[in-house]
Give the backbone structure.
Amino acid sequence: MRNDHLGKYLNDFERLIDTPFMHLDKIEWWLLKYADFHSDITTYYRDNNISYSPNSDIEAHPLYPIIINFHLFLDFYHFLDEITEYARREVYFKEEIKEYHRIKASKVKSKEWLIKNLNFGLGPHPQFITDANAFENDEMIVIHEQHDVIFYLNRKHFSAVLEFIEIFEGEVETQQILSEKLDC
């Protein structure tokens, strides 16, 4: 497997940061550029029985000196892929917010809406979504990734997902749906 990308993937990414906000199409381009390398690493992991989970500690393995750098690359790739995935889901979240506002007066229908959206509402949200809701900057989401790469995302590209999560969490608290769902 060629690993000539290992030394330059961060530099390639940092060169894309040329405006106050990181453009999502630039992130997509970077992901596309490194997709084959990502695939080579995951194939190498599978062939050598190396397990990988994003942002997890690397288990003891005879190939540790080789895979530590691969693992860091996979974490960075996964992180950027999560960002674009949430941006792509904006349309879905906008529709669900509209639906919620139509049915929120009905306790039964809003409970059905919550159950329908359990996977999205309770799923593990990436840290950038958690930070965005916590700090509530009107313009940007600050990304400080573990590789010391700092960039900013335009908050409007994630407005629906951020609003959806706030609505969902508020409704969960109001209706205490989780305890009922777990009792079923």
